[in-house]
Design brief:
about 40% helix; 28 strands; 27 helices; globular; alpha+beta
């Protein structure tokens, strides 16, 4: 499952024939953390579904082949929101049956228990269940998406989303990743609609009365959360890649917008077959585009049937941007990486979720770099690392490998530590052992554990063996304990043409200056600027000698996960040669300097010195970083109009010349990073109130002269600065829009205005049926970006209604997240009171993180902004 990497600025302004399978590995369920009783293990499910889309309900039958390890009088499995009819148990061989059991449903535990009148002997059985279930309106379980079409009115499509623990809403099952089994699925559906699942359709039977029974081929052995079913007025396009049918499925009329994803899938599959050394094992791989959105994911890696929201899969020529194109590719590459790392080999329990997500994120980034070098996405490694460090530097962080005890905790595990720190640690370890040894270890790991479950140490053992040296020690340090190493350059001395660095290790934290630091084995690479790099493994204190004399850069190449603290004279030397650094090291130095300045580890003004030293011809991604720094600073000044105006004047003076150089009109053949920078500069300057940008954006909006590449950002600038008349005009456009991909964005933009009265109107609109069931939560969240106190108090005051917009296991994340950007300390007790009343004590990490963030933001305002004020007075 992928949560897209969203630029901070954008957030501020603006998802055949049968095939032979390898023999499955031995069952590891006995060693697995579980919430279900042990002793009964499923091996195969035969599932029959009859959806009633108009009634938001479905009828189901399932027969489950189970193995009973020891005599028992009851069988307990996961079930949620179901009503059971006939239940029976029979031996796998023979005709004897047991008397119908008593059925007990525990909604809190999300289980159903079937108790028999006498003990079931050990052996093989077939458990058959008839049941009814509910079709939801949010993306969990079996759910419906209603959407507009240009010519056919409103339509309803059905999809499933089961990660992490929602297969139990669709199939009574052992809904835990270690309980792998095979599945067959058949569905009785309207004859004119397309049904899709993990495997190709094996047969279709006309039942009359406008109904068809579609039966799908048996799946390989896999976890319940990877099962998929979809139904709707779809169309499908296909291509072949290494003998596999690659498909894209969209609502009718949109298939051409999926061509880039289809072409990308073909290339990525070939890349992954070669990288893993294990061919993709299913006969087909579909990517299904769905209207709508979720606050918590953009796509899901169902084996052979990837589910993706349209905004992360389709490219609408009237609306999509170069940034969208990159995200579409990266999302597809991420979900396809899961087909091996997650689907073929699955983490044993949610403690090791990062084995799925961190690895898929890393491989998607690697593959994007390899197949689209013109995008220069290798530079984004710094931003990915910063996403992780932003969370990893406060008290409420957690280790990459974390203990998960409940469904709600599992839902909270999908965060930047799991994704971005996981990816960054893998990048560091690959650099440490070398790409060839790393790949050999990964291939050995995949081959050894295909169709089974693993823990992190299974991967480390494979890498250790392949590399011929231990990576486990480093890996354990960075995955089993939280936090960020801080490498201090204690001294630099040059003699005989070489420079010796004395290094020490601490811990970087934003909110605990007196914390006793943890300790890591840190791979450190350093070089004299312009010279050759040298490396060491730092454990506490150490030294490193590099060739040449001159300014020294630590973490050269930015492959490792730590921050570097320089002495003032060392930083000044780097500042003087800043333009000579490689772009990735410029980004790394600016990001490190920003974070340490905001935390008080270095002077806050250091980052402004680097920004001042940045030339116009610097990397577009560096200018992106600078524009983001200015908008972040601007947000800290909210409520202090006088000092905010001083900052804005300087920020506009730095950013405006770069936009003038690029111009507003996209140029044929220009590099993608340049096109993305143009949009980001317009967005930044619009946020900063630059009169020239506001006037041009409004002119283009009023005259409808918006190039497709700039339409989103122009609308975002206009929406943020909207008055009541403009808001009404945008509201009318949203109501009239028939393209879901565009309509969803327009409704979210209605929640973007900085004007408090318009924000309130957006909140009231979000409670109505008009925006659509999956847009309301996004609108409230968008208000929370600019008006956190307003959004939080509104959502909590209307909690009963807002709960219908958010799936239950994610509400513990959603509500506190609305308030996390508040600058008002009075918000803290409100969050704490809400958590005390509505969130289980074991699931309050997001609430605690929101509180920590509010305290940190107030600390920055009080202790860091005076240094910024002084710098601006001197340099502005």
């Amino acid at each position: 499952m992928r949560k897209p990497l969203v630029r901070a600025l954008a957030v501020a302004l603006a998802g055949l024939s049968p095939v032979a399978f390898a023999a499955p590995a031995a069952d590891t369920a006995e060693q697995t953390t579980t919430q279900l009783p042990r002793g009964v293990t499923p091996t195969h499910y035969d599932v029959s579904i009859v959806p009633h889309a108009e009634k938001l309900s479905f009828d189901g039958k399932v027969s489950i082949d189970v193995t009973v390890a020891q005599p028992t009088t009851s069988i307990t499995l996961n079930a949620l929101g179901m009503t059971f009819g006939k239940v029976s148990l029979a031996p796998a061989k023979g005709k004897a049956t047991f008397a119908a059991p008593k059925v007990a449903v525990d909604a809190d535990a999300q289980t159903a228990t079937f108790t028999f009148d006498h003990a079931i002997p050990a052996g093989a059985y077939r458990l058959s269940l008839e049941y009814t279930g509910k079709i939801g309106t949010q993306a969990n379980g079996l759910f419906a998406i209603d959407y507009d079409t240009e010519h056919d009115g409103k339509k309803r499509a059905l999809y499933t989303q089961f990660e992490n623990s929602d297969a139990r809403r669709f199939i009574p099952s052992w809904d835990e990743p270690a309980y792998k089994a095979t599945f067959t699925l058949d569905a009785t559906v309207p004859s004119g609609q397309m049904a899709v699942s993990n495997m190709p359709a094996a047969s279709k039977k006309d039942l009359g009365n406008g109904l068809t029974k579609v039966s799908f081929a048996a799946t390989p052995k896999m976890s319940t959360y990877l099962v998929f079913f979809g139904l709707g007025d779809f169309e499908r396009a296909t291509t072949m890649s290494d003998g596999v049918e690659i498909g894209v499925i969209t609502q009718k009329g949109k298939i051409s917008q999926a061509q880039f994803t289809l072409d990308s899938g073909k290339a990525v599959l070939q890349e992954y077959n070669a990288y893993f050394g294990v061919p993709y094992p299913l006969p087909k791989l579909d990517n299904i585009a769905s209207p709508g959105q979720s606050q918590f994911f953009s796509a899901m890696e169902n084996w052979g049937a990837i589910y993706t929201f349209e905004y992360a899969l389709l490219l609408d020529p009237s609306f999509s941007t170069p940034s969208d194109k990159q995200e579409v590719f990266n999302t597809a590459a991420h979900e396809m990486a899961h087909q091996w790392f997650g689907d073929l080999v699955t983490m044993r329990w949610w403690d090791d979720l990062w084995l799925n997500e961190g690895f898929a994120s890393w491989l998607a980034s690697r593959t994007t770099e390899r197949l689209h070098p013109e995008w220069h996405t290798e530079l984004e490694a710094v931003g990915i690392r910063e996403q992780a460090m932003n969370q990893d530097s406060i008290a409420t962080t957690h280790p990459v490998v974390q203990h998960v005890a409940t469904v709600e905790q599992a839902s909270q595990a999908f965060d930047s530590i799991t994704y971005s720190k996981g990816e960054s640690v893998i990048r560091m370890l690959e650099a440490y052992v070398g790409p060839d040894a790393w790949r050999k270890g990964v291939q050995d790991y995949i081959k050894a554990h295909a169709y089974s479950n693993t823990v992190s140490d299974d991967l480390w053992k494979a890498i250790d063996t392949a590399a011929g040296k231990s990576v486990s020690t480093i890996a354990h340090d960075f995955t089993l304990q939280p936090g960020i190493p801080l490498v201090r350059v204690e001294s630099v001395s040059c003699a005989n043409g070489s420079t010796t660095l004395k290094l020490s290790q601490g811990e970087f934290t934003r909110d605990r200056p007196d914390k006793t630091p943890l300790r890591w084995h840190v791979p450190v690479t350093a070089k004299v600027v312009g010279g050759a790099p040298a490396s060491t493994l730092l454990d506490g204190q150490g030294s490193l000698t590099v060739a040449g004399c001159g300014p020294v850069l630590v973490n050269a190449g930015q492959t490792a996960y730590y921050r570097t603290a320089y002495k003032p004279e060392q930083f000044k030397a780097l500042q003087d040669v800043f333009t000579k650094l490689e772009p990735i090291d410029q980004l790394g130095l600016v990001s490190d300097t920003w974070a340490q300045g905001m935390a008080g580890v270095q002077p806050t003004s250091n980052v402004l010195d680097l920004i001042k030293a940045t030339p116009l011809d610097a990397s577009p991604l560096l200018w992106d970083e600078i524009s983001g720094n200015f908008t972040s600073l601007d947000a800290y000044y909210d409520g202090d109009a006088k000092q905010q105006a001083v900052l804005r004047k300087y920020a506009v003076s730095r950013l405006s010349p770069k936009l003038d150089e690029l111009g507003w009109e996209p140029k044929a053949g220009e590099a993608s990073p340049v096109a993305i920078l143009r949009s980001d500069l317009i967005a930044s300057l619009g946020r900063l109130g630059d009169p020239k940008v506001l006037a041009e954006a409004r002119r283009r909006y009023e005259t409808d002269k918006m190039p497709a590449e700039l339409r989103k950002v122009i609308l975002a600038v206009v929406a943020y600065n909207a008055d009541a008349a403009t808001w009404d005009k945008m509201h009318a456009a949203a109501k009239a829009e028939k393209t879901p991909l565009v309509k969803d964005r327009l409704y979210t933009l209605l929640a973007a205005p900085k004007d408090n009265a318009l924000a309130k109107r957006a909140l009231e609109l979000a409670l109505t049926d008009e925006p659509g069931a999956t847009n309301s939560a996004a609108m409230i969240s968008r208000v929370g970006n600019g008006h956190p106190e307003l959004a939080f108090e509104f959502a909590t005051a209307h909690k009963e209604k807002v709960d219908t917009f958010v799936d239950g296991t994610s509400s513990s994340r959603y509500y506190p997240g609305l308030a996390r950007n508040s600058l008002d300390l009075a918000t803290i007790p409100k969050i704490e009171a809400f958590a005390q009343k509505y969130i289980a004590a074991t699931s309050r990490r997001e609430a605690e993180s929101a509180v920590a963030n509010i305290r940190y933001r107030n600390q920055v305002r009080k202790e860091r902004l005076p240094a910024v004020d002084a710098w601006l007075k001197k340099n502005g």
